[in-house]
Amino acid sequence: MLTSLFTGISGLNANGLALSVIGDNIANANTVGFKASRANFADILSQTLGGASAMQVGRGTMIIDIQKLFTQGTLETTSNPLDLAIEGDGFFVVQQPNGPTYYTRAGQFRVNKDGYIVDPNGYLLQAYQMDVNGNVTGAIGNVYLAGLMSDPSATDLITTQVNLDSREDTTTWSFTSGSTLPVAGTYNYSTAITIYDSQGNPHLVYTYFCKTAANTWEAHVVYNNSATGTNYVEVDFDSGTAGTQPVTIAFDSNGALSDVYVTTPHTPPDPTFRPTAALDFSSWGVTSPQNVDIDLNNSTQYGSSNAVVFQNQNGYSAGNLIAVTVDQDGVISGVFTNGQVKKVAQVVLAKFVAAHNLTKVGNNLYLESYASGGPTYGAPGTVGVGKVYANSLEASNVDLAEEFIRMIAAQRAYQANVRVITTTDNMLNELMNIVR
To answer: Is 118 strand, coil or helix?
Structure first.
């Protein structure tokens, strides 16, 4: 009879521990990336009664395991681009400075005072490193953003699509290098565009269009080649000929571009020809002439006003970091003031065969254990680690309704085990009363 007391006590201990697990789940219902746990019960068998047919008597219950449930949590949208959420089985990898490596599902990242991306504990987010061309190197390390700049790129192509008014009269180009631009009346139409040298210095380049004959125009390119003053010069597209050679543009009778050439028309005509302008920016410290192709393809000569249909160039100045973005592949990119987007690193995710055996260490962190096995590292979207979503956080996977049901069941089980103990006590009292 006394064994029923200890059986009841085992039920009290086990259900009390189960209530602790349920309470921890409920307490963390709003903890980002939290994974609920479940108390798994097992019976205790410690006595066998012999006889014609052996009988096994249980001695109660115990908690055999507290299982971590790594089911997917709901993704919630945020305004922080470094808030990251995983859809899948992976874990973010964070490194304690001069300490161990941890794993987490909580993606509340930010930039610390030293320019590194860290979690709320100050641990460094780990990612695949990238070279200057944005290619993954395979090395895993910290993500450093401080002082990140976008290098300038020299312009080597100007694309200009214009409509030149076929009703214009012919004009005579007249220009002398110096401090002033060509005066009105020496050209029919002009346009300007800012280009960049190899150091990122901006330069305004002008193109003047002069009608020289029916269906024939000249394009004269003028720019300032002095960094300390004003000295406008015209580009000579053929230094081997006398004078400053412009670009000749020819149209057919329908107003479509038929040929672009410098000294001699093409045979057959070539409307896709791109003459090259050699620009002298030595006054800015650029030692070699900067060669820039001029693309006039698709220009027209219709009976409508002179107009720029499209104009662009492919250079840009140096840029400072103004924003950070992260795509579903975990690629962290910097957005710069010069309009460029540069890949910086790619978030690395870890996956475990037995993730439920990871060791909880608090602060939403896990440590690898012998039972969990070693991690498999991969980029988001590969080897089953899942995808990464920016401006998102994974909510706790705690189901409050389910936890309350478990709480009620544990409470009733606790009460029932108390009744076993009190009933046993009453039976012992009756036994003592026999003596009386």
So the answer is: strand
Give the three-state DSSP class for 236: coil
CA dist 220 and 218 (Å) reads 6
Question: Residue 95: which residues within 8 A CB-CB, separation 6 or more?
Answer: 101, 102, 123, 124, 126, 142
β-strand pairing of 216-224 with 84-87: unpaired
Written as one string, the DSSP assignment of 31-69 is STT---EEEEEEEEEEEEE-SSS-EEEEEEEEEEEEEE-
Instruction: Evaluate whether 216 touches 246 at the Cβ level (below 8 Å).
Output: no
CB-based contact 205:181 (threshold 8 Å): no
| DSSP assigned state of 270 | -
pTM of the model: 0.76
Check residue 176 and report its DSSP letter: -
What 3-state DSSP class applies to 275? coil
Maximum Cα interatomic distance, the chain, rounded to a whole number of Å: 139
Q: How far is the C-alpha of 423 from the C-alpha of 4, rounded, in Å?
A: 9
Q: How confident is the model at residue 55 (pLDDT cuts 50, 70, 90)?
A: low
* Mean pLDDT within 21-50: 87
Give the tokens for residue 375.
């991690």
In the chain, the amino acid numbered 295 is D
Per-residue b or e along 10-41, where b marks 16 or more CB atoms closer than 10 Å to that residue's CB: bbbbbbebbbebbeebeebeeebbbbbbbbee
Show the 3-state SS of 191-211.
Answer: EEEEEECCCCCEEEEEEEEEE
**CA-CA-CA-CA torsion sign (294, 298, 303, 308):** negative
The type of residue at 264 is T
| 115-140 pLDDT per residue, tens | 999 999 999 999 999 988 888 988 99
